Amino acid sequence: MQKIADGVYALELEMERLGQTSTIYPLLVSDEEGSVLIDAGLPTSIPEIEEQLSEIDMTTMDIDALILTHQDLDHIGGLPGLVALAGEGTDVICHEAEKPFIEGTEQFGRLDPENLKTTLDSMPESLREEMQKLVAEAKAYKGVAVTKTVEDGDVLPFGGGITVIHTPGHTEGHICLYLNKNGILVAGDELDLVDGELFGPKHGLSADESEAYSSISKLTKYDIEDVLCYHGGLFAGDARERIAELANEALNG
């Protein structure tokens, strides 16, 4: 776990996918007003989450709300288990467009047969079996009731205020979250950090890649100092200039 600011912690969870190990970064915001976890990791992430919460004398029962940036399993896979551990009254928050996927009433977009066939056909034979395991894992996901949906510009009452930024493209209801008090942007999969450099969304992983890149421009309205990318971790320092560059590249690309 990495402390980013007072009451703001990036969890560091191991993820194994398609023969590669990487780290994913949910964010915990906690103060006297309550505690919220942004994104929930994989079904297998819960022991790691519990262990890292214990480092700051917290347990899953201290979580008052979970905010999901979007429907991908590496962001919501741990949700059912965390809600069960956190107990009754825990809020589950997402954009309206993501609600049916998080609740399990609609199939994940990536499991659409045509999309899945295209994905498998593009993969080396050596990775297709691993991909089939991921598909089975996604199909096993059991939905969780969403207690609150949000829209662009909504402000959630955690950590001095968290502003919702609707950034469609990666998925229809993808959101970023801006911590008003600290100038920290929780980017979800809208931005990507690779070897310390900030980029737009990974190529080939968005439902509408053009829209995903266009959505970067919405981030330029905010006074962003640091960016937490779910894949890659923390981009620390004045991020505004780099985000403006990415938005300009998307506009002129």
Molecular structure report:
β11 and β12 (175-179) form a beta hairpin. Helices cover 27% and strands 27% of the residues. By secondary structure, it is α+β, with helices and mostly antiparallel strands. The chain is built from eight helices and 17 strands. The strands form four sheets. The chain has a seven-stranded mixed beta sheet, with no helix packed on it. It has two domains: 2-104 and 141-252, Metallo-beta-lactamase, Chain A; 108-140, no CATH class.
> β content, as a range?
25-35%
Gross geometry: globular
List how many beta strands DSSP finds: 17
Give the termini separation.
37 Å
* Overall tally of structural domains: 2
- What is the share of helical residues? 25-40%
Largest sheet: 7 strands, mixed
Query: How does CATH name the architecture of the largest domain?
Result: 4-Layer Sandwich
- SSE string: EEEEEEHEHHEHHHEEEEEEEHEEH
Protein structure class: alpha+beta
Spell out the CATH superfamily of the largest domain.
Ribonuclease Z/Hydroxyacylglutathione hydrolase-like
Count of helical regions = 8
Task: Tell me briefly what this model is.
The protein is α+β, with helices and mostly antiparallel strands. The chain is built from 8 helices and 17 strands.
Topology:
Blueprint: E1 2-5, E2 8-10, E3 13-17, E4 20-24, E5 27-31, E6 34-38, H1 46-54, E7 65-67, H2 73-76, H3 79-86, E8 91-95, H4 99-102, H5 113-121, H6 125-139, E9 148-150, E10 155-156, E11 162-166, E12 175-179, E13 184-188, E14 192-194, E15 197-199, H7 209-214, E16 226-229, E17 233-235, H8 240-252
Parallel strand pairs: 6-7, 7-8, 8-9, 13-16
Antiparallel strand pairs: 1-2, 2-5, 3-4, 5-6, 10-11, 11-12, 12-13, 14-15, 16-17
